[in-house]
Amino acid sequence: MSWVGKLTDYPNPVTSAISSRVIAEFGTISIVMAAAALIVASFLASAVYVVTGFIYVAAVYVFWPILRPFLQMILGTVSQIFEIIWDNIPVLSDREVFSKLCEFYTFGGGSASLRTLRPIMITVLILFLIVRIYKKTQKLQEVGYMARHEVFTIQGTGSC
């Protein structure tokens, strides 16, 4: 009779003492590290709060008065440029947007591009669905609703 792989009826007292001692030490170390992390995090949070306060004061009282005239000039120029462009594009007025979009779709190559993309998109969709079916099968196998490797048992006889 082979003794390989056999478990004893009672645990070894030396290994029990070592493992419980190690578990107790790990628990103590975890508590000490959590306390140290809490102290360091509280100091770090207060330091971050002070730094953000300084950044806010510097932004509001130093940088904003300097940058405000430049921003007003830049935004005013950009808005005037867009207003001139809006006035000079006839497509954006008189409800011609839909007719131009329809013209682009039919004569600009939009319909041909969609016709070319149709088999590619169908292939991508089928591959996506196949992957989802495989993942769903794995979840069902983990829960126990489906036998492993598609092997079905009849009346509880047979195993996988």
UniProtKB/TrEMBL annotation:
Sorted UniProt keywords: Membrane, Transmembrane, Transmembrane helix
Presence of the UniProt keyword Transmembrane in the record: yes
Segments traversing the membrane: 20-40, 47-67, 116-134
Highest taxon above the source species: Eukaryota
Protein name per its UniProtKB record: Chloroplast protein-transporting ATPase
Source organism of the structure: Opuntia streptacantha
